[in-house]
Amino acid sequence: MANLKQVAERAGVSPATVSRYLNGSLSLPEPTREAIENAIRALNYHPNPFARSLSRGRTDQIQMVVPEIKAPFFAALVAAVENAAFERGQELAISVTLNRPGREQRYLDSVSDRHVDGLIFVTNHPEVAPLKSRIDAARRVVLLDEDVPGATAPRLFCDNDSGGYLAGQYLARHGHRAIGVIGTGDEMHSGAARFQGFSRALDDSADGGYRVHRKTGSYTIEDGSRLCAELLDEHPGITAIFAMSDELVIGTLDELARRDLRVPDDISIIGFDDILPLDYFATPITAIRQPVEALGAKAVEILLNTDWEDPAACSRVEILPVTLVERSSVASVPPAPQATVQHESNR
Amino acid sequence: MANLKQVAERAGVSPATVSRYLNGSLSLPEPTREAIENAIRALNYHPNPFARSLSRGRTDQIQMVVPEIKAPFFAALVAAVENAAFERGQELAISVTLNRPGREQRYLDSVSDRHVDGLIFVTNHPEVAPLKSRIDAARRVVLLDEDVPGATAPRLFCDNDSGGYLAGQYLARHGHRAIGVIGTGDEMHSGAARFQGFSRALDDSADGGYRVHRKTGSYTIEDGSRLCAELLDEHPGITAIFAMSDELVIGTLDELARRDLRVPDDISIIGFDDILPLDYFATPITAIRQPVEALGAKAVEILLNTDWEDPAACSRVEILPVTLVERSSVASVPPAPQATVQHESNR
């Protein structure tokens, strides 16, 4: 059966445009309208799959649990899951845990209790051990974005390791040999993998040795400012900073502005996420882009298509590729030959 | 009883910091930690009100329905409601309607069916007439951000009229007399009120007459580009644009960049919402700021404190003030004496 995406492709518009047109929230020029209507007829597309599922006598409801909703990455991830769920005729209930373990556990239990058909679960704090048994009991849980080690569930991550590698390689090729890294620590899947890839890239590409100074905290604006300040106070010789989230980029920019340091003339920055409109920034920020639309679509697909009786399927890990979006926040520096210490990490 | 905010004030940190500290998701320096613990003791604050309500044998659950979640304003509004609900010991279920009337109606019905204690309802499409009877039946519904005319429900809006007035007055005082406006049309509460305030300000402040060219659509990046292009094609003499949302600002900037027009040298912009990090933009954008935190807190307060048996309370309208955040996107222009047409609006 034709889906919304095929209609959109045939009509030469985005799926969101077709979706909005169908629900009446978008006024379109006549030729666009006509192209969509023609595509719907040609493909025999039936919009409103939700109404169909109601007529089958049951509600297809899935749930998504996120730690917060204001951070652009999570807002975009929820929106991507919402769009994918909509296309599959699924209604999505969204809950925010603020990383409180009690809330996380209760939502997981709601799957065990069969109140929802399945759950896409996102957490981003390190104390996840108690969640393992709840996830095992719940089944029909997809772990997205961060890991809960040991839990039996399909997992979907972006390629954090490659993202770190791309960032490290890019800085090394631009001559940087004394670099600050701010992000989460190794207790978080994303922080560990991004830093591991980053370090490997410097080993591969930074001729003449390098020094990396790592500061860890959470993915927040406040920690971006705080960790950037610590880096600059303790290691004034750094020429670049790898900030592992959009919020950390903002916090870093704030701290650099307070010290009248210009990007990239005085110091270079490379970010991660690329959900904020970094293109429009005073210095457009080079960043590793998370495949947020693909993550949302794939998470819904895994939740709906997994055979939950199959142990192999329930331990599958999918990794989606990231890309480096080059803008103007990294300058080339002449490599100084002094740096020979391999690397140093301090919390 | 002391609340989280009072603890935060006494400790000299943000409520979010206290909240994150309490749920263990934030590592803090020892002095900050101590300040929070002292404040908790001094105020006899009991964190985790949710656990208390569970011990009373019922779940305090409220629902929030929003048209979408990716737009920064809605993400911020949901986060603000989430924080306020958390402080009041309420669990929040969030649903996205993508403006589909079927979804909106079903969520409203879930209040009538007593599945949730109350609903904060946000819509942003014009065909809301069918929702009126559902809202009347549901009761315990707070209308937030946009109106459903005729429905019996307390309403909470930002001061759209004053926001429009501030924008118009600011442009007029900077000498602008030929201005483009892009936003929603009069069928939407926000678009109507913002434009009304804007026009009144020009009547009050634009000596020598003015011309306003209005283009209407939805609050999206795509419509920002499209409406900006129409404005520039049809009215090349405009010196400023009032773009009624963050997304419309982004779309406008895209279109101006395609035409190699610089802000504010070639054309001035003033925006609305101010949720995106406009401070960091190449030209920091002057904008009317929505009181999004206050809107979230007040919406939860109205939902929980309204006496639903009292007709006066159920028709109360609350308006929260907006502010103009001055940055660098509006230039002063010498007022040209030619403009005498009062104003012109075309869709």
Protein architecture, described:
The structure is a homodimer. Chain A folds into 3 domains: about 45 residues, no CATH class; about 130 residues, Response regulator (Rossmann fold, 3-Layer(aba) Sandwich), CATH 3.40.50.2300; about 150 residues, Response regulator (Rossmann fold). With about 350 residues, chain A is an alpha/beta fold. The first copy, chain A, is globular, with a radius of gyration of 22 Å. In chain A, helix 7 links the parallel strand 3 and strand 4. A 7-stranded mixed beta sheet of chain A has the order 12-10-9-8-6-7-13, with helices on both faces. A 6-stranded parallel beta sheet of chain A has the order 2-1-3-4-5-11, with helices on both faces. In chain A, about 40% of the residues lie in helices and about 15% in strands. In chain A, helix 6 packs parallel to helix 7. In chain A, about 55% of the residues are buried. Chains A and B meet through helix 2, helix 5, strand 2 and helix 6 of A and helix 2, helix 5, strand 2 and helix 6 of B.
Can you count the beta strands of chain A? 13
CATH class of the largest domain in chain A: Alpha Beta
User: How many DSSP H or I helices of chain A?
Assistant: 12
Q: Overall pLDDT of chain A, averaged? A: 88
Kindly estimate the percentage of residues of chain A that lie in beta strands according to DSSP: 15-25%
What is the helix fraction of residues of chain A, given as a range?
40-55%
Rg of chain A, rounded, reads 22 Å
**Domain unit count of chain A:** 3
Low-confidence stretches of chain A: 48-59
Kindly report the oligomeric state of this protein.
Answer: homodimer
Give the strand order, joined by hyphens, for the main sheet of chain A: 12-10-9-8-6-7-13
CATH superfamily of the largest domain in chain A: Response regulator
Biggest interface reads: A-B, 47 and 47 residues
Please trace the helix and strand order of chain A, writing H or E for each element: HHHHEHEHEHEEHEHEHEHEEHEEE
For this structure, the CATH topology of the largest domain in chain A is Rossmann fold
Structural class of chain A: alpha/beta
State the shape of chain A.
Answer: globular
